[in-house]
Amino acid sequence: MMVAAAIIESPSGILLVENKRSWQDTTEWSLPAGILDPGETLIETAGREVSEETGLTVESWGGLAYVVHRIFADRKIQLGVHVFSAKSYSGEIELNDPDGIVVDACWADADRVRELMPSAAFHQPIGDWLEGPRSTRIYEYREVVGEPDELLSRSDLGADSGDV
Description:
Shape: globular
CATH architecture: Alpha-Beta Complex
Number of domains: 1
CATH class: Alpha Beta
Helix content: 10-25%
Distance between the termini: 23 Å
Mean pLDDT: 89
Strand content: over 45%
Low-confidence stretches: none
CATH superfamily: Nucleoside Triphosphate Pyrophosphohydrolase
Structural class: alpha+beta
Number of strands: 10
């Protein structure tokens, strides 16, 4: 499954959204993200999801920030998440998710990201991005329910992929 996400920064931190997880009867924080729709590019998906989930519009993109491959060993599922960095955005946060999944949003610094996103597959790439250098990286994690995420590999592809 292919997912696109956006990393949006302000002086207050990184934008996170809180998602309702009906199968767990709980919520989970993430970057604005969603599944690729037919005919969309990954960057179009990221932009659409930002707009749908937060009411913000990404005006320009800085490129591919990182990719996370998640292998759910116990469920035999793989997920590829392509995260693009927003250079500029407009609008105010307005929660009006058409899917009814996003229930809150906040700006979070690195410490708050780790607190809200205990899964290493979520918070480690964001932390690396915030700490720099800003280069495109690929992460691969193995995940089993009830166990900590296992980082299998991390590759640095060099300077970020440029303007999109």
